[in-house]
């Protein structure tokens, strides 16, 4: 039992046996407010002159703030998939141990290899007001992935969309070229067929003219009195 608990026990016994019969003089309608409660209530991630109101609560919070080391932060990455990452300044004990500088800045990681420094635009809400602060944190590769989880996922989705769009464009181009080739082949076939029909028509017309001449000169008397046959005349036109 610590000194304060022992004191309360003594005082309760005194009042119960020698006082007015009250069972517990430390029962109060209002909870006990400790120094840590005051610090939690008045602490600021970055304090300014406007935060110095001169009250003892502000003075206590300022005294605690001045003991923090603000070169590197310690990060809470437990909810990184939700995009919710917490930062706080290092305490003297953590600075002495090298936490956040010579070991990973994730509060649940103690890796010491392949550490890298990152500058993060820390957006947070304090007293109902949105604020931003540029902070530095040193992390190992797995924790750095957690820190940039949202950006990595967004980049992967964008790369996937671009790959699908390129595939669709290539498919459209291939289909268009195929249609163009089919149209060109059909046009070539049509042109060849038209030329063939023209040649056949010309041959028919020539044959008809020859036959007409043969019919007109089917029998022609020669000077010697013989006749020229159609077969002999046809040789004249060939």
Tell me about the largest β-sheet. Answer: 2 strands, antiparallel
Structural class: alpha+beta
Global outline: rod-shaped
Put simply, the count of helices is 7
Strand order of the largest sheet: 1-2
N-C termini distance: 137 Å
Supply the key terms.
single chain, 238 residues, alpha+beta
Q: In words, what does this structure look like?
A:
The chain has 238 residues and is α+β, with helices and mostly antiparallel strands. It contains 7 helices and 6 strands; from the N terminus they run αααββαββααββα. It has helices at residues 3-18, 35-42, 56-66, 92-97, 141-147, 149-216, 230-234, and strands spanning 69-79, 84-90, 116-126, 129-139, 220-221, 227-228. Helix 2 (35-42) packs across helix 3 (56-66). The longest helix is centred in the last third of the chain and has 68 residues, at 149-216. The protein is rod-shaped. The model has no long low-confidence stretch (mean pLDDT 79).
What is the compact description of this entry?
With 238 residues, the chain is α+β, with helices and mostly antiparallel strands. The protein is 51% helix and 18% strand.
Summarize the helices and strands and which ones pair or pack.
Blueprint (H helix, E strand, L loop, with lengths): L2 H16 L16 H8 L13 H11 L2 E11 L4 E7 L1 H6 L18 E11 L2 E11 L1 H7 L1 H68 L3 E2 L5 E2 L1 H5 L4
Antiparallel strand pairs: 1-2, 3-4, 5-6
Helix pairs in contact: 2-3
